[in-house]
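Same chain as my last thread, 156 residues:
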Amino acid sequence: MSGFAEGGCACGALRYRLASPPMFVHCCHCKDCQRQTGSAFVVNALIETARVEILSGTTIGVPVPTDSGRSHVIHRCPACQTAIWSHYGGRDALSFVRVGALDDPAVAPPDVHIYTRSKLPWVALPEGVPAFDEYYESRQHWPPESLARRKAALST
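reply #2:
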């Protein structure tokens, strides 16, 4: 395997590879993520879409409503409907890859927990990982290399 990590959908029709480590990893506890996943939170690895290589299959983009009103498109396997990644706010240059769809989700632990104001009371947050009631200021928490990668991706 070349690249950082591989993943796929539940039925195996879609396989993909992350060409590099993600820029940053969020564990989001917002009500939208809870509703859309049917779980307590979602873990998303933020990476440039150009660094997500589809090895087999394809995705379909499913627009979903959000509490903020900003666009959110979840890319799913057309066969089994597994959520693979999302594009938020019309920024298709950045992908929010579902860490749970990686073959080894342990390679991308959360760098931050966000929207913890709606965290379920029985979820315990790990010590040493920053947590925010809402979102946070990326410039204060992302490594400089990741900030440069994000800026480059959004300027194309």
